[in-house]
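Hey L., structure's done. Input below.
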Amino acid sequence: MGLSTHVLDTMHGCPAAGMRVRLFSTQAEQATLLKDLVLNHDGRTDAPLFDNAGLRVGTYRLTFDVAGYFKGRGVTLPEPNFLNQVSLDFGVAHAEQHYHVPLLVSPWSYSTYRGS
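Output:
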């Protein structure tokens, strides 16, 4: 399956439908944008970010527009926001394996893990 992600909105107890997500490849301090997309009704991408044939060993960054998502839901956020963009830097050591990178998020906290 390659690389996938999904986001759960822990404030409202639902998928983060409509959240903007960007995928970058990274090398040292350089980040190259690979994909820019919006999550579907289930808080997921419509297709894997990469299938196993396209995924390469290396380092990547997923950036999630947390403040934009919650503002779009009508949540009043302080200025400046506590969380604006959440960036997750991670490595892919075995391109033949599935890497699932979920995000659990509220306007004030987030957590992630390598999912299955």
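The chain has a mean pLDDT of 96. The first helix runs from residue 66 to 72.

-- N.
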